[in-house]
Amino acid sequence: MSSVASAPVDVQFDVIRSRPRRACCLCGSAGVSLYEGVIDKIFGAPGEWNFKRCSNPVCGLMWLDPAPLEEDIGKAYTSYYTHEDGPAPNSNFLRSVYCGVRKSYLHSRYDHRSIHGTRGEWLSKLMYLNPLRRNTLDLSVFWLRSKPYGRLLELGCGSGQTLGRMHELGWQVEGLDFDPSAVEQSRRKGLTVHLGTLAEQNIPDNTFDAVVGNHFIEHVPDPVDVLRECRRLLKAEGLLVLVTPNARSWGHRLYAADWRGLETPRHLHIFTRASLSTACALAGFDSSNCHSVVRTSSILLQSRMLRYLGKAYPLHDAGSWSLCVAKAIAMLQWVASPLDREVGEELVITCSK
Length: 353
What we know:
alpha/beta, Rossmann fold, 2 domains, 7-stranded mixed β-sheet, 9 helices
């Protein structure tokens, strides 16, 4: 999810062709209609789309029915935010202090000794005063401890910002994306990035120590097939770390069809904890740990904007009251998270081979 792009919604696209998907791809149960006639208010992709939810209450997977044809789905990404890097952060005293705290925190918690300029472990304690920002930092490195010369593959790497960060932390990185414009931007930065699907790359078995993806798995037509390929590419005891929208989050319960996590028609599946764990088990992973994560309030803020303004960007159009509401809900989510592992707007799952 990006908070920097201001995408036009008046761009004219070709029609996106679709095909029916009646049953859950994980358990085979029939789908129950959840939302109908949802349009893309964010990036202006054409069409009206319907979401179904698995009738098996244990599963709860959501999916588009009908779903875009694979050869047409690229039309939904013409003005997608992965085309942009976003503005460089302002350089000022407070920013400098924050960078010092961030470096100290990553050095202390994840043993990222390649970070230069850390000023002592005491600085890392300051990050615990802001749990939402701390969780964002954890996600920025996918909860991965330092592994000198470890090989990492990022799925859906976009313009390569996260790949560049992980490279600076000592990882040997490669990326994958099916957006040609985003891949071109990454390659201009000197990064090794593959274009297309994971199966098309013919990467040898047991290549990577970690495969990661931030908001990737919800974009693929066959998530279990992709997860099997991820497992094949991992070395023994390698880790898969995925972050994806949470179908049972507080934000979805509150904003329903205006929830930012739906993002029709690009998000083909929206997972629950149970369905994401099931998908990884079907792919052959030995063990997994899945829970929701509560970090910044951007998804909540964008959902509120979609409901009341009909758009999600730019964020400064939301107004101070909407920002306060979003931050308050996010803090309440954090307080409730020890009691309810599904309150957060995103799920994170870590699997071992």
